[in-house]
Amino acid sequence: MTSGKYFNKGVKALDEPNLGYVVRETPDKIIVFGEKNERYDIPIAEIQQVGANVLIGLKYNELAKYSVSRDAPLPAGREDPWDEGDRMVDLATYEGKYPNTLFNKGVRAKNEDHVGHVLKETDDKIVIFGENNKRFDIPKSLIYQVGMNVILKIDFPEIFEYEVPKEAPLPTGEPIETVDRDVFPPDYHGPK
Prior knowledge:
This protein has 192 residues and is mainly β. The protein is built from one helix and 13 strands; from the N terminus they run ββββββαβββββββ. Among the domains are: 57 residues, SH3 type barrels (Roll), CATH 2.30.30; 59 residues, Roll (SH3 type barrels).
């Protein structure tokens, strides 16, 4: 399961603001990974509220009954309502297969401002796609910490020093696929 109502949302208990995040959901439960190698298989019935985060209607010490070994196999999720065959990319599986990669992690500035997501990683830098079609090629030496997100040692406006045109070749020399210019010529300014 790569998406759904709860997938990848932060999870809170009544007395714990950062329990972890949802890594999988099934028709009857959510699987939550915590920061201290914790895992909880929590029944959907225990969910009190869903918004930007999932609020569990229990206190932290009451969650022990749902604790599961982090290494235990994940239960099968729901089937996606569409079938894309070989074109379907399951990011959760990719990230599980390559746990040390920064691919698709959120990136935040030192003051916790959102910068974007890691599109590509090389030996010495990360390529970040951010808001408003911004692209930043930032040296790995400027990474402060890596957890659920990549935290940088710098803030805005210093981050803008690393902005590059989004259509510039990737650091490995690969081209980025761009919009077909015959369909949208340079002088096109949208519908009138």
